[in-house]
Design goal:
3-stranded antiparallel sheet
Length: 87
Amino acid sequence: MVVVVGIVRFWIEMREKKQAYYFAVEERMTGVFFGSCGLSGWKPEHRHAMLGYWIRTSRTGQGIATAAARHVACGELMKTIFNMDHS
Protein backbone atom coordinates (compact mmCIF):
# COMPACT_ATOMS: atom_id res chain seq x y z
CA MET A 1 0.00 0.00 0.00
CA VAL A 2 2.87 2.40 0.75
CA VAL A 3 4.14 2.05 -2.83
CA VAL A 4 0.71 2.89 -4.29
CA VAL A 5 0.38 5.95 -2.06
CA GLY A 6 3.82 7.11 -3.21
CA ILE A 7 2.92 6.64 -6.87
CA VAL A 8 -0.34 8.56 -6.48
CA ARG A 9 1.48 11.41 -4.72
CA PHE A 10 3.94 11.51 -7.62
CA TRP A 11 1.05 11.62 -10.14
CA ILE A 12 -0.54 14.52 -8.28
CA GLU A 13 2.74 16.41 -8.02
CA MET A 14 3.47 16.03 -11.74
CA ARG A 15 -0.06 17.14 -12.66
CA GLU A 16 0.19 20.22 -10.43
CA LYS A 17 3.46 21.12 -12.20
CA LYS A 18 1.76 20.43 -15.56
CA GLN A 19 4.61 18.06 -16.43
CA ALA A 20 2.61 14.85 -16.70
CA TYR A 21 -0.94 13.52 -16.56
CA TYR A 22 -1.32 9.99 -15.18
CA PHE A 23 -4.51 8.00 -14.74
CA ALA A 24 -5.41 4.80 -12.93
CA VAL A 25 -6.68 2.02 -15.21
CA GLU A 26 -9.53 0.25 -13.44
CA GLU A 27 -12.24 -2.23 -14.27
CA ARG A 28 -15.40 -0.23 -14.85
CA MET A 29 -17.80 -2.41 -12.84
CA THR A 30 -15.61 -3.33 -9.85
CA GLY A 31 -12.95 -0.61 -9.65
CA VAL A 32 -10.20 -3.27 -9.58
CA PHE A 33 -6.87 -1.57 -10.34
CA PHE A 34 -5.18 -2.87 -13.52
CA GLY A 35 -2.38 -0.32 -13.93
CA SER A 36 -1.86 3.19 -15.23
CA CYS A 37 -1.70 5.18 -18.43
CA GLY A 38 -0.73 8.76 -19.04
CA LEU A 39 1.22 11.50 -20.74
CA SER A 40 4.63 12.74 -19.64
CA GLY A 41 7.48 14.79 -21.06
CA TRP A 42 5.04 17.55 -22.03
CA LYS A 43 6.76 20.12 -24.25
CA PRO A 44 4.25 22.92 -24.93
CA GLU A 45 6.51 24.68 -27.40
CA HIS A 46 6.55 21.52 -29.56
CA ARG A 47 3.03 20.28 -28.69
CA HIS A 48 4.67 16.98 -27.79
CA ALA A 49 4.26 14.44 -24.99
CA MET A 50 5.05 10.76 -24.50
CA LEU A 51 2.28 8.24 -23.94
CA GLY A 52 3.09 5.50 -21.47
CA TYR A 53 1.28 2.69 -19.73
CA TRP A 54 1.74 -0.15 -17.27
CA ILE A 55 -0.70 -3.04 -16.88
CA ARG A 56 -0.34 -5.75 -14.25
CA THR A 57 1.02 -8.98 -15.69
CA SER A 58 -2.09 -11.00 -14.88
CA ARG A 59 -4.18 -8.71 -17.10
CA THR A 60 -1.91 -8.32 -20.14
CA GLY A 61 -2.92 -9.56 -23.58
CA GLN A 62 -6.56 -8.51 -23.08
CA GLY A 63 -6.54 -5.17 -24.90
CA ILE A 64 -6.57 -3.14 -21.68
CA ALA A 65 -3.45 -1.09 -22.49
CA THR A 66 -4.72 -0.41 -26.01
CA ALA A 67 -8.09 0.78 -24.72
CA ALA A 68 -6.49 2.93 -22.01
CA ALA A 69 -4.00 4.49 -24.45
CA ARG A 70 -6.76 5.22 -26.95
CA HIS A 71 -8.86 6.82 -24.22
CA VAL A 72 -5.98 9.09 -23.15
CA ALA A 73 -4.80 9.91 -26.69
CA CYS A 74 -8.26 10.61 -28.13
CA GLY A 75 -9.97 12.00 -25.07
CA GLU A 76 -10.78 15.42 -23.76
CA LEU A 77 -7.37 15.70 -22.10
CA MET A 78 -5.60 15.78 -25.47
CA LYS A 79 -8.05 18.33 -26.80
CA THR A 80 -7.46 20.48 -23.73
CA ILE A 81 -3.69 20.41 -23.36
CA PHE A 82 -2.82 20.24 -27.05
CA ASN A 83 -5.79 22.27 -28.30
CA MET A 84 -6.34 19.66 -31.01
CA ASP A 85 -8.73 16.91 -32.05
CA HIS A 86 -7.49 13.42 -33.04
CA SER A 87 -10.91 11.75 -33.41
